[in-house]
């Protein structure tokens, strides 16, 4: 067994406390994210078979919509639209990500 001495153990103890603190914060964040996802799923489950978007649905599910300044040319104009849902944040558009 290796002997660290008092200074080595004190340093090790501080590093261990920092690690525990970081892991506790990560766990709390994951638990909060899980709760938010559950809340969102509860709300969205009411709308599994809809034919049109209603004001009620928008108000209940969407926090905000951000429309960015258009880029590109007249023939190939690109407008980025970010949709932020309540509880889960920004939706990722897989098609836009794949095009980049």
UniProtKB/TrEMBL annotation:
Superkingdom, natural source: Bacteria
Protein name per the record: DUF4368 domain-containing protein
Family annotation (InterPro entries): DUF4368
Family annotation (Pfam families): DUF4368
Domain DUF4368: 27-91
